[in-house]
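Q: Focus on the chain.
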Amino acid sequence: MNLRRLTVTLVVLGAVLALGAAELLAQKYGGTLRVIHRGNPPSLSIHEEATVSTVMPMMPVYSNLVFFDPLQKKESEETLIPELATSWVWSNGNKDLTFRLRRGVKWHDGKPFTSKDVKHTFDVVRGVSEQRMKLNPRKVWYDNLQDVVTNGDYEVTFKLGRPQPAIVSMLASGYTPVYPAHVHPRELRTKAVGTGPFTLTGFQRDKNMTYKKFDDYFVKGRPYLDGIFIVIIRSRGTRHSALQANQADVSFPYDINAAAKRQLEEAVPSLVFDLSSSSVSENFIMNTKKPPFNDARLRKVVALAMDRDALIKSVHQGLGIKGGANLPLPYGVWGLSADKLAQVPGMGPSEVEKEKARQIMRDLGYGPNNPLKLKLSTRAIAIYVDSAVWAIEQLKQVYIDAELDQVETGNWHAKVARRDYQIGFNLTGVGVDDPDPNFFENYTCGSQRNYSDYCNPEIEKKFVAQSSETDFKKRLALVHEIDLQLQEEGARPILVHRVTYTAFWPYVKNFMNHQSTYNNYRFQEVWLDK
């Protein structure tokens, strides 16, 4: 970390943690924030899950080494602030990353936080600890992390095998909390012991989750709220009705589409609607280890068959952006330029692309009287099912007869993890707007999150090359080259990147969406003006 970055970081930290006197007087303490959740979290362990259904309700409980400033809407390296760390610095040719740690931090059970907790967390995540997690979806994020070395109780050094500038941003993701060394990871599936601003006090499945302010939270004057109440409502329509009736203060994140916004706005004109990308793409996962999608030609057919413009216009009513693997402009930094996006299968004129798909199918022996029959699996949540139903109609136009298979949320990730499917309509969220977590997590051979089992050792060499590149323009060019190759090979055909609303009542202050759905639910800055 250079001197300029450190200066910026400390200035931002000061702005967040020590507001000016005039601003501080404007804040109000007290009250309980009521937030809607769409279903039960699969477990309470963020490190073991791959869904916002766990990240959102558990982020208030935990802390990271570093964090994205919650009061800055767009996440970037410039909005990184210390959290459990107080500063960080690079050395050894940008292969050693040393963090100074905050003193006086307590876990919710009263134990002191030290460097041992940091080492424990990342040894467990890297899979080198005797204590193991049942699932470890982000292990590949840290394949370049060779060791975590403590220097006393309040300093820790991450030793990398090669330079990797993105690792600091990856550590700021909501997916990257520090866990307590004195609690076995398996226990954290059903209970929560963190250092965050709130403690989890109750969880009734299908009903609610309750939290109270942690009086020994290490940020002076935070949180403003006395507590949080998360109400679990599975039905999307019922969720919206609850918000409209003021039975909740904040909608489930990114849960409001264009139609729901119009209805809510008409009913409650004072509601605030925050439009943002979610860093979530709609895509197809295909089981490349089994017929028929072990044939790359069929994967290309699926990509060619999808009329993305029609999807955005019909299902999303104008809210959505076409793109490749990475978050498109203007929300992201690494998305394909317009000329490169035009080269992606399925991005040309729809009927022309569909005819290419039909010709491939005819070459494979299929046709209108001999369609390929299969099951299209998806998660039994409205935002999955809406687009999956639309996609089935698209597939019919290229001689694929797909039957919808709706899978309960609690079973979805386990089902795809054991590859118990043919083709799936999926939503993939990326924890940070950076190619590293995206490429390594979703496209490397053997990654738990590479649900299609796409495997190309040659492209993985390019993953490493772009990750180590410190020149932005060179890295961007290589990232675009990789993205185009992934789309051409049907690794995980991208349909659209979601752009949606989160709605909340106007008395909810200091809450805003970021461009990623995974990184802004600490709630330590939120207060209620009522």
